[in-house]
Recover the amino acids of this structure.
């Protein structure tokens, strides 16, 4: 490599609070005020948070892998979709929903580790583009395997949270939305605690930041990369299992739109910032719901283009996303 | 001159094969061979941008969509001669590429990749929105059909012209500027390469070639331009083809194009994996295996062979 890239946090801050934080605070105030004024607004906001947190958790999976390997995993959504099919199969074999849920997460971890060891590791140190192409290959491969095993027709799964609807004043909120938000938040919190408080998590952070230095002090970076892929697959599986009840049917194409929104969310948050990915996902979910509600032109065909147009505008103003750091290049 | 002799022989053999091939092929196989030419043009375009200038794009399906719809719309509404629509597709896609290239100046690396990906996702949605002009999901058809032989001749002629164009652009001053930008933007600027001009130019040329490929793709699907043809999968396919061909070299382009155009058809007729899903499995596996064995693509074999020959001499 001729070019060395080094990431440095921006230390020069003129404002005591960053403009991004101010902007987010303003957006929160806007949403709260809007929700108090109109119950439709409140309903759309809560539903948007429900879809947004799912985008956020898949975006978080992408960010985890990007931080460790500088590669976007195109197969992330398909890996998640395959795990939903595993859960479907477990349910068919007679497990209860939550037994199947946790069993699937365990399987997802093993699946992620195996994928990294078998497919990614051989190309890991060759070139970034080779790794990206391998993930594209995985995308096609997993899609093909799932369709082969379970068929492309629609399947139905038990709803994890039932069909109850809560009423708060004139605002009605589905129990499923509340459940999705709760489950995803718990997962994200556990992951954060893992990285923050365990020695394994510390080693993974070190390995992502300075691989060579981490190896020198005895961090087994290769093994930890595999663990990273495993954790990303678990996050993806949670996202997949939470997506399925919101679209009601299970198909091999389940996660493809979600993956696209997750890309947008991850980039919006700055690709290197786990918190940014979650905030990006939430922002995207709420934004799309509100735009769809109040702007007649924005029909469902346009929701992807609008998401990406918003993303491009953010990137033009801040080319490294909301929470990204500027990279300093050395020739 | 002696160093170039094997290269000239290879090119001459390739041209001869392409010229003689249609005499031995059935109509269906002529169509397949035309497919190879279409992907060859698209991969050439992507290679100029990603391989030579270092700007990663996952959005070339979008430019193919623009070129394809240009051809279909011109033919449908204005009854333009089909061959005349090809330079038009080139020009329109070139303009779009330049327009995209200007904001892309602000992005680099993975952010650019995702910005272009956004394009690949968004552009095919637009015909659905403006369906009374573009026919929505049913698509829009060109005013006349063409034979397989016509397609073969036109596609391969276009491919030859595109290859020559790419070679001419890349061998001279412009190509040097592109490669300088790829290797180090800072170093390129300090040696007087104007980043903004050359990067947008690379985007333009690259998009223009993709546009022509898209136009030909539309003619190949019975003259129908539909949003489905230009899905994200198409963009990814071209990226896969370019990686298998080998980025930053023109040698492997034919192999990359043949890989993505022919493999699904070959595996369809193979026993055991004949089903549609089996094709996907085989394609995905092949992509992974080729990338693990040849991380620099087929073109990466050329320096290896040269070294081998040098060792023998």
């Amino acid at each position: 490599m001729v070019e060395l890239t080094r990431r440095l946090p921006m230390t020069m801050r003129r404002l005591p609070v960053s403009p991004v934080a101010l902007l987010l605070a303003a957006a929160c105030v806007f949403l709260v005020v809007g929700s108090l004024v109109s119950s439709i607004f409140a309903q759309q906001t809560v539903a948007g948070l429900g879809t947004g947190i799912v985008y956020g958790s898949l975006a978080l999976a992408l960010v985890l892998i990007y931080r460790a390997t500088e590669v976007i995993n195109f197969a992330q959504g398909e890996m998640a979709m395959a795990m939903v099919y595993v859960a479907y199969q477990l349910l068919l074999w007679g497990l209860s929903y939550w037994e199947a849920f946790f069993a699937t997460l365990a399987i997802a971890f093993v699946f992620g580790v195996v994928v990294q060891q078998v497919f990614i590791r051989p190309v890991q140190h060759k070139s970034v583009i080779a790794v990206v192409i391998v993930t594209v290959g995985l995308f096609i491969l997993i899609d093909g395997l799932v369709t082969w095993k379970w068929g492309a027709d629609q399947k139905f799964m038990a709803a994890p949270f039932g069909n109850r609807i809560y009423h708060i004043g004139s605002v009605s909120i589905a129990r499923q939305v509340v459940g999705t938000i709760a489950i995803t938040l718990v997962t994200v919190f556990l992951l954060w605690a893992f990285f923050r408080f365990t020695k394994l998590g510390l080693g993974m952070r070190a390995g992502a930041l300075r691989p060579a230095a981490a190896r020198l002090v005895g961090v087994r970076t290769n093994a930890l990369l595999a663990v990273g892929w495993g954790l990303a697959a678990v996050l993806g599986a949670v996202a997949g299992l939470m997506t399925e009840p919101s679209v009601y049917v299970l198909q091999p194409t389940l996660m493809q739109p979600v993956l696209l929104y997750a890309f947008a969310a991850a980039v919006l948050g700055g690709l290197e910032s786990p918190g940014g990915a979650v905030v990006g996902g939430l922002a995207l979910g709420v934004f799309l719901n509100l735009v769809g509600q109040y702007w007649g032109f924005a029909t469902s065909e346009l929701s992807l283009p609008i998401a990406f147009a918003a993303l491009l505008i953010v990137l033009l103003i801040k080319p490294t996303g909301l929470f990204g750091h500027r990279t300093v290049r050395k020739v | 001159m002696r160093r170039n002799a094997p290269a000239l022989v290879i090119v001459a053999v390739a041209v001869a094969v392409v010229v003689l091939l249609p005499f031995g092929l059935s109509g269906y196989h002529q169509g397949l061979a035309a497919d190879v030419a279409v992907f060859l043009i698209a991969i050439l375009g992507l290679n100029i941008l990603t391989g030579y200038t270092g700007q990663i794009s996952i959005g070339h399906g979008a430019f193919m969509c623009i070129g394809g719809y240009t051809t279909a719309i011109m033919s449908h509404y204005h009854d333009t001669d089909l061959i005349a629509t090809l330079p038009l597709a080139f020009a329109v896609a070139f303009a779009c590429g330049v327009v995209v290239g200007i904001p892309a100046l602000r992005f680099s690396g993975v952010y650019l990749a995702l910005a272009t990906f956004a394009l690949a996702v968004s552009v095919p949605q637009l015909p659905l929105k403006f369906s009374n002009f573009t026919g929505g999901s049913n698509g829009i058809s060109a005013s006349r059909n063409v034979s397989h032989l016509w397609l073969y001749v036109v596609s391969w002629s276009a491919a030859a012209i595109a290859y020559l164009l790419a070679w001419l652009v890349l061998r001279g001053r412009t190509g040097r500027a592109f490669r300088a930008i790829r290797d180090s933007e800072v170093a390129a600027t300090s040696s007087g390469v104007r980043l903004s001009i050359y990067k947008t130019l690379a985007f333009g040329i690259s998009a223009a070639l993709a546009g022509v490929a898209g136009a030909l793709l539309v003619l190949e699907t019975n003259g129908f331009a539909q949003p489905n043809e230009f899905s994200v999968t198409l963009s990814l396919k071209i990226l896969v083809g370019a990686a298998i061909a080998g980025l930053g070299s023109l040698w492997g382009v034919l192999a990359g194009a043949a890989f993505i155009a022919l493999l699904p058809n070959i595996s369809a007729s193979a026993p055991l994996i004949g089903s549609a899903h089996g094709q996907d499995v085989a394609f995905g596996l092949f992509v992974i295996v080729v990338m693990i064995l040849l991380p620099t693509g087929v073109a990466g074999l050329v320096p290896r062979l040269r070294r081998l020959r040098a060792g023998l001499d």
